[in-house]
Design brief:
transcription; RNA_pol_sigma70_r4_t2; single chain; mainly alpha; 2 strands; sigma factor activity; about 0% strand; two-stranded parallel ribbon; DNA-binding
């Protein structure tokens, strides 16, 4: 072990923490059956590293060092608790032992099953007993290794709000006695759906930020894609896991082309496809092929990945198979009915059969309560009206869409489109 400076040690600790924190918390949660306690133990090990590594040097296996320190502190806590209970018994009090109390852990046994521990942590952090916001924050904290400050910055949310969500989430898991386990049988499908939803939501917020000055937040896309890949390795027999990986890989492949030189949004049909990442596309298509090999009944993520694949395979916008995309959206609407899916299908139909056909479908959605404040409804309608030469109506739609979006970059784009329609 080489002795390093305090600054170098801190950088090393931060890098190791980002890589190892999920495994560390997962292994400790299996020992303690308490995610809050597991994270506290992991943080104590982190503090110990910051204190000791500048003097002792960075160990050859930093992750194992952190786990060893955290395990020792966990065992000390178990022993302290046992001594406390013995003293209580000596005083003659009758106490029921807590359900979580366990004998001293077997260190050899704890070293095994890292993949199962991670999978347990995934399912626990994404448990449906928590609100969507809490699941997202806790997942980024435990599995992404992000600090509350980083999560707050990514979501443009006050840091105390994020911290409260995480604290409440851990308390809720403890209060509801959510078991630290991998669901089996009939419980697996709904729980897996919750996990996939959380990862998908994190990616989408990074891909098209709902608020703020930036069109994209690449760090969230990267974290979601990393977690999806980890999940695919842990649950390799689940087709929808591979479907989600395929979707995110292909979507992420466009990232460089989605933003202009000044940070402005670049829409799909205007993107320079030479800037699309062909490696990510190949990985996405391979994941899609894997999903298709596992089932004859594709789920929503696999179908969305198939739609993304149609775009990825088209070297030019005019090569896009819009009829295939419209058919896939029809399948998606049958599997996962949603006005948003129908709106996307309308866009595909407009590209396949003309703007009038698409506008007819969009107009059927105008009274949907879910879409009342959804800025993409007037945005799509404005685009179709502009193509039909109805420029005054298109301008009004773009202005309405600009008023509804919370993203400043997108608002600017929509106002420019409104001005263009006004000048036509």
């Amino acid at each position: 072990m080489a002795v390093v400076s305090t600054i170098e040690a801190r950088r090393t600790v931060e890098a190791v923490w980002r890589i190892e924190s999920a495994r560390l918390v997962a292994g400790l949660a299996r020992m303690t059956h308490d995610i809050g306690a597991a994270e506290e133990l992991a943080q104590e090990a982190l503090v110990a590293a910051l204190q000791q590594w500048p003097q002792s040097g960075v160990p050859d296996n930093p992750g194992a060092w952190l786990m060893s320190v955290a395990k020792r502190r966990a065992i000390d806590e178990f022993r302290r608790q046992e001594r406390f209970e013995r003293k209580v018994a000596e005083l003659g009090r009758e106490l029921e032992h807590d359900a979580w109390q366990q004998p001293e852990p077997d260190l050899d046994r704890i070293d095994g099953g890292i993949e199962d521990d991670l999978l347990r942590l995934v399912f626990t952090a994404c448990h449906p007993v928590l609100s969507t916001e809490a699941r997202v924050a806790l997942t980024l904290r435990l599995l992404g290794g992000l600090s509350t400050g980083e999560i707050a910055r990514a979501y443009l949310t006050p840091e105390p709000t994020v911290a409260q969500r995480i604290v409440r989430a851990k308390k809720t898991l403890a209060k509801k006695q959510v078991p630290f386990e991998i669901p089996r049988g009939e419980q697996l499908a709904p729980r897996l759906a919750s996990v996939l939803e959380v990862i998908y939501l994190i990616f989408n917020e990074g891909y098209s930020a709902t608020a703020g000055d930036d069109w994209m937040r690449p760090e969230l896309c990267a974290e979601a894609l990393r977690m999806a890949r980890v999940l695919a390795g842990l649950a390799s027999a689940e087709p929808e896991v591979h479907g989600l990986v395929a979707l995110l890989e292909i979507q992420a492949s466009r990232s460089r082309a989605r933003v202009g030189a000044n940070g402005e949004p670049v829409l799909l049909l205007d993107q320079d496809r030479a800037r699309w990442d062909r490696l990510l596309i190949r990985r996405g298509l391979a994941a899609l092929e894997r999903a298709e090999s596992l089932t004859d009944e594709p789920g929503p993520y696999q179908l969305q990945a198939a739609i993304a694949a149609c775009h990825a395979r088209a070297r030019r916008p005019e090569d896009t198979d819009w009829h295939r995309i419209a058919a896939l959206y029809e399948e998606l609407a049958a599997v996962n009915p949603s006005p948003v899916v129908e709106l996307n299908r309308a866009v595909a139909v407009s590209m396949a059969d003309g703007p009038a056909a698409g506008l007819k479908l969009v107009d059927e959605l105008r009274d949907e309560p879910v879409l009342r404040d959804y800025h993409l409804l007037p945005s799509v309608r404005g685009d179709l009206l502009a193509k039909l030469g109805r420029h005054a109506e298109a301008r009004d739609e773009f202005e309405q869409a600009a008023a509804l979006t919370g993203n400043e970059r997108e608002r600017t784009l929509l106002r420019e489109r409104a001005r263009s329609a006004r000048g036509s």
